[in-house]
Amino acid sequence: MIRATTAVLLWTCLVQLTALGDTWGPMVLKGWPSRETLSASALDVKLLPIVPARVLPPKRVYKNNGYLLISCNGGLNQMRSAICDMVAIARYLNVTLIVPELDKSSFWADPSEFEDIFDVDHFITSLRDEVRILKELPIRLKKRVELGLIHTMPPISWSDISYYHNQILPLIQRFKVLHLNRTDARLANSGQPFDLQKLRCRVNFSALRFTSQIEELGKRVVNLLKQKGPFLVLHLRYEMDMLAFSGCTQGCNDEEVEELTRMRYAYPWWKEKIINSELKRKDGLCPLTPEETSLALRALGVNSDIQIYIAAGEIYGGERRMASLKSTYPNLVRKETLLGADELGFFQNHSSQMAALDYLVSLESDIFVPTFDGNMAKVVEGHRRYLGFKKTILLDRRLLVELIDKYTSKLLNWDEFSNAVKDAHANRMGNPTKRLVIPDKPKEEDYFYANPEECFHPSSQNEPVNIIQ
């Protein structure tokens, strides 16, 4: 009985093992999966295209001389150019750069951090063959900073790289960590090593990429505009902060003049307080008003049915001041009119992120027209030159206000006025030109980021879109 029972059990086990062998045998003994038993889905997976891994530049190996902390000041584009300068300086001093701190105490009071506006990981990795960039100091050095064992200073404006080698580098080597608390316009425009100039461009045009959220929303705005044809971006800098800072009150009533004056005195770092608005305007130092802008665009022959995207914050005086411009160019749009409140909700009270959207749209426009040569106007101008000398109308404000005053006082008829404006701007369309260099007067010479000619490709000129009659 025992032998019989054992035989039955063994036979049963053999049958089960045989059945399992038909399923698992080929997989275990012949490798997984076998050619015969590959399913259709497995075959599909196997044939999917392989996504190539991102190729990063090799890390640059060098002796680290210390760490550089920087606190940017100003608006988005003022900080943008400063970051480019500081990366170049860190590279040439062989120091480690900590991701820049953005200005949160300026007029706009934007609480955004670097990573809220720029793709911080791309910024770090794309430049790793030039300079080592960290998100924060190592712990041992962070404790020194918390104890106040750090040297803080603003560098001298418009200095060349020898100043940083001779005066800044020894401080870094001595203190290990140096904090530069003002970084705008601290590196000279011209006369710098060619490789340094190229690196400034590389940071500006490649490494400083906006976050995916900002990039995607910018593309959406551009697509909405392109669906209706060519479009012009008007950087209308007739905003409260600019008028208060510059003291320009053309077209304002007495109550508005008083409000702007109060605001100017409220900011102690705005050093100029008593300003003659009329004289400043005649010298071309005021942003054009919406009324003056309307006349200038008409005189230049810009089609009245063109889409005009207003790249600016709230225009001072609101609809009342925009009435003349809107009557001449009814297709005025803003990001607030193109996008829903839900799409812009994330960016509310974040002026630098809003400015980033305007920046992206400005780059893609058929024509870009700034009404004042502030930081955004200059940096966008230079970026459009880099992209192929895209048409940028650089208004001669000093001449324009003179011609406008003659026209409005009937000293010129319309044809005389229009021809004079066109002649004056024939060579002010963002075409290739040499950067003006004035030794010992860096504030009066051409700004590097408005015309970074060391970085241009000779054959990169675009065919302009004709939206001017």
From TrEMBL:
Pfam families, sorted: O-FucT
Family (UniProt): Belongs to the glycosyltransferase GT106 family.
GO molecular function: glycosyltransferase activity
Organism of this sequence: Lactuca saligna (Willowleaf lettuce)
Ranges in a coiled coil: none
UniProtKB keywords: Carbohydrate metabolism, Fucose metabolism, Glycoprotein, Glycosyltransferase, Membrane, Signal, Signal-anchor, Transferase, Transmembrane, Transmembrane helix
Protein's GO biological process: fucose metabolic process
Subcellular locations according to the entry: Membrane
Membrane topology: Single-pass type II membrane protein
Listed InterPro entries: FucosylTrfase_pln, GDP-Fuc_O-FucTrfase
Major localization class: membrane
Protein name: O-fucosyltransferase family protein
Signal peptide range: 1-21
One GO location term (cellular component): cytoplasm
Pathway(s) of this molecule: Glycan metabolism
Keyword Ribosomal protein found: no
